[in-house]
Design brief:
Layout: E1 2-5, H1 9-12, H2 23-37, E2 41-44, H3 66-83, E3 92-93, H4 97-109, H5 122-130
Parallel strand pairs: 1-2
Antiparallel strand pairs: 2-3
Length: about 140
């Protein structure tokens, strides 16, 4: 199986501790975190992905807003530079221990945080990173 992720969710999953927009969102993200933890690969997609799925039934899902697409562009650039490979729709990657460690180190250092500007979860993510990623689900 493959987990479909938009680029900025590569950053969100680093600090996911079971908090989210709704119970359905959290339950879905928990399943995705377990799948990734078991080694499933990732397919980068453009637009809403497997994490967004529970939100798409809302009247105006933020997953479809321009701000989400802008976050994707910034995250793709920064993560791509960090991993020395393109991060764009159609690319497949895996999150082995070394890749997760590199992503978390860069996130903690602020190297990959431009996509987080203006995000309502940025404060929580900063706290989790500063705390050494305790209680993350992946």
């Amino acid at each position: 199986m493959t987990v479909r992720l938009r680029s900025h969710h590569l950053l969100c999953l680093l600090t996911y501790v079971g908090k989210g927009y709704s119970g359905a969102f959290v339950a879905n993200f928990d399943v995705i975190a377990k799948r990734l933890g078991r080694g499933e690969d990732i397919l980068i997609v453009s637009g809403p992905d497997d994490i967004c799925w529970p939100l798409l039934g809302e009247a105006e899902p933020h997953c479809l807003r321009e701000s989400a697409a802008g976050r994707d562009e910034l995250a793709a650039r920064d993560v791509g530079e960090l991993l020395a490979r393109p991060i764009e729709a159609g690319v497949r990657l895996s999150l082995d221990a070394a890749t997760l460690a590199a992503l978390r180190a860069a996130f903690s250092a602020g190297v990959t945080r431009e996509a987080c500007q203006g995000c309502e979860w940025a404060g929580l993510c900063s706290t989790i990173a500063a705390g050494g990623y305790r209680d993350v689900r992946l």
